[in-house]
Design a protein that fits this description.
Elements (H helix, E strand, L loop, with lengths): L5 E7 L6 H14 L2 E6 L13 H12 L5 E3 L2 H9 L5 H10 L3 E7 H4 L8 H7 L2 E4 L22 H9 L8 H9 L6
C-alpha cells in the first residue's frame, strides 16, 4: 500500500480464499474505483475452524491477487499478532493503517454489518470509517452503505472445505487448488 492511498479492507479468515471472494473484491473495486486489500486474520484468531496457517492462507491470497490489478493482500494482522500475542480488533487494524498514512474503508458482508454495534468499538468504526456492505442471502436493509449492483455469491468456507476432502475444487482458483494439493491442506 502506498501512503495517502484510499483502500477498502476486505477482512476474513480466507480459509481458503474462493473464487467468490475474488469476484466480490473485483466487483467492489470496479464499482468504487478503490484498491481492495485482503486482510487475513492472524494465527491468533480464536476461531477453531481455521484449518490452514496464516502463511498458507496468505500465500493463497498472494496467488489470486498477483494477476488482478487493484487487489492486494496484507500481513498486518499477523505482524500485530507476532508483536502483541493477540489478534487485533478491527478498529486497531484500521487505525494502524491510518498511522501508515493510508485511508482505509471497510468491506463487510451484510450479516456482519447487522451485528457491528456488538463489536469492540463498533459504533466508533461506523462513525470514523466508510463502510461498504456486500448484500448476502435474503437479508435486506434499506441503507446507503449497501453496495448496489453486485452479484450475490453463496460463500461457505465449511462447505468448501468439505468439498475439498471429497476432491471437489470447483469454487477455487486452479492455482489455489494446486497449492492446497501440494501442501496437503484440508485433507482431514
Amino acid at each position: 500500500m502506498k501512503n495517502s492511498e484510499d483502500v477498502i479492507v476486505f477482512g476474513g479468515s480466507f480459509d481458503p480464499v474462493t473464487k467468490a471472494h475474488v469476484a466480490i473484491a473485483q466487483e467492489v473495486k470496479k464499482i468504487t474505483g478503490k484498491k481492495i486489500v485482503f486482510m487475513p486474520v492472524s494465527d491468533g484468531y480464536g476461531k477453531r475452524s481455521l484449518k490452514a496457517s496464516f502463511i498458507d492462507r496468505y500465500r493463497m491470497l498472494e496467488i489470486v491477487t498477483s494477476t488482478s490489478d487493484g487487489l492486494e493482500v496484507s500481513d498486518l494482522e499477523e505482524e500485530f499478532y507476532l508483536r502483541y500475542k493477540r489478534q487485533p480488533k478491527t478498529i486497531e487494524t484500521l487505525e494502524l493503517l491510518q498511522k501508515r498514512d493510508v485511508k482505509p474503508a471497510l468491506l463487510l458482508g451484510l450479516d456482519n454489518y447487522l451485528h457491528i454495534d456488538r463489536w469492540y468499538e463498533g459504533k466508533k468504526i461506523k462513525e470514523d470509517f466508510k463502510i461498504y456492505v456486500y448484500p448476502r442471502g435474503i437479508q435486506d436493509i434499506d441503507d446507503e452503505v449497501v453496495i448496489k449492483g453486485v452479484k450475490l455469491y453463496d460463500i461457505s468456507s465449511s462447505k468448501i472445505k468439505d468439498a475439498i476432502v471429497d476432491h471437489i475444487y470447483d469454487d477455487l482458483d486452479p492455482k489455489v487448488k494446486e497449492y492446497i494439493i501440494t501442501h496437503h491442506l484440508y485433507q482431514d
